[in-house]
Design goal:
- The structure is a single chain.
- With 227 residues, this protein is of the alpha/beta class.
- The chain has a single domain (2-219), classed as P-loop containing nucleotide triphosphate hydrolases (Rossmann fold, 3-Layer(aba) Sandwich), CATH 3.40.50.300.
- Helices cover 39% and strands 19% of the residues.
- The protein has nine helices and ten strands.
- It has helices spanning 2-8, 25-38, 60-68, 74-77, 88-94, 101-113, 136-143, 157-169, 189-202, and strands at 13-18, 43-46, 49-50, 80-81, 117-121, 129-131, 134-135, 147-151, 175-183, 206-210.
- It is globular, with a radius of gyration of 17 Å.
- The protein starts with a helix and ends in a 17-residue tail after the last strand.
- Bound molecules: adenosine-5'-triphosphate and magnesium ion.
- Magnesium ion is lined by residues 25-26, 60, 121.
């Protein structure tokens, strides 16, 4: 009975997606997680799948754990981990397995059960397949968390961001905000204009994240979901 009740309980937190890959999702999710943790919340982090681990560097789940102060094991943060830099559905296929959406939802709920806030990072953008027929967007819907969209502020930002907003709203996802990152100290006329156009045409609030040193956690800017 307890398990059944838990499975229906709404999650608290945020689902960070982006206009694509390498647009700042991890940085935005990390800044939100750290802001919540510094504010006193117990924060858990989650990512359905990570690929490209062969490339070295600090993987997304390690940075998210560091940002949140959580002690979750790798498996509790990201159930599926792959070496080659490929879409998760293909990375899984090449590893001889298939991502199980039910396992993802269970794992996200298990992560959330030990915390007051769950900060999820997607993989790639909203339309990235986790299985041949189950997209990141489907997972965001199932988790029922409000979405934050990370985007680069430069050329292409308006189109990519508006497309992502349409894809989110088409299935009823609530979009908290768009975060432009890294936001320059001295933004150009184009970057400022892009921000205005996204707010106006997308009917969404925008936040910005200045460039910061990921190694120096004490210097990270605050970023609240919805800002
Ligand atoms: N505000 C910022 N401060 C410092 N670096 C930033 C900032 N925003 C983006 N970056 C840099 O941009 C790059 C991509 O960011 P990030 O890894 O967060 O993207 P991602 O969307 O999570 O990528 P992936 O699709 O691989 O998960 C990284 O090198 C990151 O350090
Ligand atoms: Mg990332």
């Amino acid at each position: 009975m307890v398990a059944a009740r838990d499975a229906r309980r709404p999650l608290r937190g945020v689902f960070v997606t982006g206009t694509g890959t390498e647009v700042g999702k991890t940085v935005v999710a990390a800044a939100i997680a750290r802001t919540l943790a510094v504010g006193g919340a117990r924060v858990a982090v989650f990512k359905p799948a990570v690929s490209g681990l062969d490339g070295g560097g600090e993987p997304d789940h390690a940075l998210l754990r560091r940002a949140s102060g959580s002690t979750q094991p790798d498996d509790g943060i990201v159930p599926y981990r792959y070496g080659p830099p490929l879409s998760p559905h293909l990375a899984a296929e090449l590893a001889g397995e298939r991502i199980d959406p039910r396992r993802l939802v269970r794992a996200a709920r298990a992560a959330a059960s030990g915390a007051e806030q769950l900060v999820c990072e997607g993989a790639g953008g909203l339309m990235v397949p986790l299985t041949p027929g189950y997209l990141i967007r489907d997972l965001a819907r199932e988790l029922g968390l409000p979405v934050v969209i990370a985007a680069s502020p430069g050329l292409g930002a308006i189109n990519h961001t508006l497309l992502t907003l349409e894809a989110a709203r088409a299935v009823g996802l609530e979009v908290s905000s768009v975060v432009l990152t890294p936001w320059p100290d001295d933004p150009s006329a184009m970057e400022r204009s892009n921000r205005d156009a996204i707010e106006r045409l997308g009917a969404v609030s925008t936040g910005v994240l200045p460039r910061f040193d990921l190694e120096a956690a004490d210097s990270w800017p605050t970023l609240r979901p919805g800002e």
